[in-house]
Every structure is written in C-alpha cells, then in structure tokens.
C-alpha cells in the first residue's frame, strides 16, 4: 500500500474508531462501519485488519472485556449484568471469553481482587532506581477514565502505522496527570504516547512531547491494566514514605513491555516510572 493511500485509509478508519468507542454497548453493524469508512464491506474488513492488526470484531471484544475487568475490580454488579454490558448473551459465554483473555474466570478474578494485596507488605513489588534517558514523543491526549485510554492508543497506533513512525526501538508509554481518588473521573487527564527517534511535529490532535533525562523509581507490575491501581497505591502509600526519596517535578508514567492485543492479560508487564528528585550528595 502506498504511503499516501495508507494515510488516507487511516483517516477513514479513525472515524470508525470514533463510532465504535461511542457505541460499545451496541451490537456493531458492519455495513454501517463500512459506510463510515466510505468502503465496501469486503474492502472495509481488509483495510481495517491491515491497519489495525486485528479484525474489527476483535477490537470490540478486546475493549469490552477490558472494560468488564475494570468493572469487576471497582464495582459489585452481579456477574450476569457485567456479562450483558460486555455484549454477551449469557454468563457462560462471557466466562469462556474472559477465561481465554485473562487466564481466569470473572468470578475468580473478582474474588482475587477482593482478597486484595496487603499494601503494608514492604517488598510487595520489585523496585529499582534508574537513570532514564531523554525521549522524543508523539502523543494523543485523553480526558476521562484512565480505563478508557485504549481509544487514544488505538488511534495513535493507527496514525503511527500510516506515517511510518514505528520501528524496533519504539516504546509505548502512558502519562497520567491526576489522582483518580481525588479528581472526578471525567476530569482525569492523560496522554497515550510513543517514542520516536527524533523530534516530529505531527498534525493536530496529535502532539509532540519531550521527556528529559530523569531519575526514576521503577515498579514492575504483572497482570491486567485494570489492577494497576493497587501498584500505584502501594508505591505512594508504602514505598515512597519509607524510601527516603522525594518525588520529582514530573507525573508518573507507564512503559508497556508487551502487546495487549496478543498477550494474555494476566501476563502483561508494565513498568511504572515515578520521577524522583535528584539524589543528594
């Protein structure tokens, strides 16, 4: 596919992503999606899969299950209600899909969350102190629930693929600026970002960001993104007060070590970077 054609198709598929994320609770009409992309249904399937790396049905299923996992972490709705909101006609079908994606049943996932980790445990997560290099970044802003930043990452991936920004050295990062325990959900601010080899000035709504060299505490979290909240609580409530360190002038950010589209969710690895004040001599 020629670069100009890829960019043109990416703009069309981006409109489809807008529609999908606004109608996640509805059954997708593939003819409607093809119409939004100004493509025939046959060509829509081919173009979407080429640019997104997965069929549209997988995007919908992946996103719905991610949101369901967040609901299981944060809420107490009965499992059949969670299954219905995730687009499944029965609890059995939802459980099979959840098991395949998360490596455990939704009931056990919730139970394990209720038996939440002991935040008083001083060595609950591995922590290292690192000197982190500077990065040039391209980013897309998101406002609202951090669990919903996936739309920004999908659009950033689509744009990056079409513009040829991705290579073997690319890092995927998330920047989170507000405390969800004190900030209304609709006001939470974040960025989905990728590292690039040199400074780029992308067209709006994408932004160029720069990350300077930083001294950071790095916590490695293993498991679904919906359980990262436990790691943050431990980092700020347990480790930081006892470490003798002081936070620096930058917000925490996350570095995603594997692909959430192709990795079972219980095997996801995320490094949380907490920028620190310079070491005292």
From TrEMBL:
<dbReference type="InterPro" id="IPR018062">
    <property type="entry name" value="HTH_AraC-typ_CS"/>
</dbReference>
<dbReference type="InterPro" id="IPR010499">
    <property type="entry name" value="AraC_E-bd"/>
</dbReference>
<dbReference type="InterPro" id="IPR009057">
    <property type="entry name" value="Homeodomain-like_sf"/>
</dbReference>
<dbReference type="InterPro" id="IPR020449">
    <property type="entry name" value="Tscrpt_reg_AraC-type_HTH"/>
</dbReference>
<keyword id="KW-0805">Transcription regulation</keyword>
<keyword id="KW-0238">DNA-binding</keyword>
<dbReference type="GO" id="GO:0003700">
    <property type="term" value="F:DNA-binding transcription factor activity"/>
</dbReference>
<dbReference type="Pfam" id="PF06445">
    <property type="entry name" value="GyrI-like"/>
</dbReference>
<dbReference type="InterPro" id="IPR018060">
    <property type="entry name" value="HTH_AraC"/>
</dbReference>
<dbReference type="InterPro" id="IPR029442">
    <property type="entry name" value="GyrI-like"/>
</dbReference>
<dbReference type="GO" id="GO:0043565">
    <property type="term" value="F:sequence-specific DNA binding"/>
</dbReference>
<protein>
    <submittedName>
        <fullName>AraC family transcriptional regulator</fullName>
    </submittedName>
</protein>
<dbReference type="InterPro" id="IPR050908">
    <property type="entry name" value="SmbC-like"/>
</dbReference>
<feature type="domain" description="HTH araC/xylS-type">
    <location>
        <begin position="14"/>
        <end position="112"/>
    </location>
</feature>
<dbReference type="InterPro" id="IPR011256">
    <property type="entry name" value="Reg_factor_effector_dom_sf"/>
</dbReference>
<keyword id="KW-0804">Transcription</keyword>
<dbReference type="Pfam" id="PF12833">
    <property type="entry name" value="HTH_18"/>
</dbReference>
